[in-house]
Amino acid sequence: MLELHRKIKLVKISVGIIASHIIMGIFQERIMKQPYINSDGISSQFALPFAYVGVQCFVYTFITVGIKLIYDREKNETPQKYFAMPAIFFVLAPVFSNMALKWVSYPTQVVGKASKPIIVMILGVLIGRKSYRAQKYVSVIFIIFGVIMFSFKPNYQESESENLLYGNSFIGLSLVMDGLLGALQDRMRSISKPTTLNLMLFMNAWSSLYLVFPLIITNEGIDFIHFCLTHPKIIIDLSVIVTVGTIGQFFIAQMISNFGALPLSLVMTVRKFLTVFLSVIIFGNELSIIQWIATGVIFIALVGDSMFRGKSSESNESSLETLETDNYDDTKKSNLKSVVIHNHDPTEFVKVIDIVDQAVPQNSDCIHCNESTKKY
């Protein structure tokens, strides 16, 4: 049982994660779905997905540089090619996700993105030649069932601003990008393990570089500057997203450092459900009874998947203790695999090492971990 002060700390961190990410979700929906009115009373919709992601990548690159200069000057030993390729999918996943919001409601996007384990499993089987236990397949089947329920709308007529085919297609593309990103990250870590700050720095730096081209080609860069000048309120909204994103990263780091991956996964699942709920209340997005039931089925399946993943991690820890007792050498231990958790958002990159070196207790890889902890 957790001691009282640790329970209080867990609650505080959980509230911090949920609050910061809910605020991000609200402002994201406001930016991508709500019209902005200029000084002349003319209403305009923000439809610049590359610029939206680019601003965050640019800002987080500078923030990471600042943090490295102050706290961590460890030299990067990972070849840049291992950052360059994943950064492509790191950019495209949120871009496609935001493009989907042009055609579907925010709750639909959140529920669609919650089906990420389906893509991870498919790519794991096809590309990684992985096998999964029965519990994993059961949870994925329930997620698929929930998504089908959520998408089924009898006697439904699309509004002029909606197109479920386009919207769901972009959500699907975003999920595929997430899956490919995770596969490439696994590959990178099997070869080289960059520190947390180096990973964040170079992933955002490469992403920023890639985004320069679509910003120029599509003219989104000029359009974004013009939109900010004529609708200065969006500058405030973007500033809020970047600020709470930074705060959210701090709480995520604290959660992993103090309590591990399972509580984080459960908290993030609760956050998604609350985001859907608040979107319905604040922005008037309507869900049918069947859709609410489907949402519940999906998130219960996600919780079950998280619990199963947590038990698997505990099993890995027990295996490590056995190896230590038998005095296995460091070379054999170094061959043990790590478990990667990726909550994709331009502001989110989190990794947890389940199998660590003999001299280092299990901890997470994050900005605020102890210096002795192995990081990205």
Automatic annotation (TrEMBL):
Q: Which GO terms describe its molecular function?
A: UDP-galactose transmembrane transporter activity; UDP-glucose transmembrane transporter activity
Does the entry feature the keyword Transmembrane helix, yes or no? yes
Question: What family does the database annotate?
Answer: Belongs to the nucleotide-sugar transporter family. SLC35B subfamily.
What is the protein name given in its UniProt record? Uncharacterized protein
Where does it localize? Endoplasmic reticulum membrane
Q: Which residues cross the membrane?
A: 10-27, 47-71, 83-104, 110-127, 134-152, 164-184, 196-217, 229-252, 264-283, 289-308
- Kindly give the InterPro entries that the UniProt entry links to this protein: EmrE-like, SCL35B1-4/HUT1
* Any one of the GO CC terms: endoplasmic reticulum membrane
- Pfam families the record matches: UAA
Q: Which UniProt keywords apply?
A: Endoplasmic reticulum, Membrane, Transmembrane, Transmembrane helix, Transport
Tell me if Phosphoprotein is a UniProt keyword of this record: no
Query: How does the entry describe its membrane topology?
Result: Multi-pass membrane protein
Major subcellular location class:
endoplasmic reticulum
The lineage, from the top, is: Eukaryota, Metazoa, Ecdysozoa, Arthropoda, Hexapoda
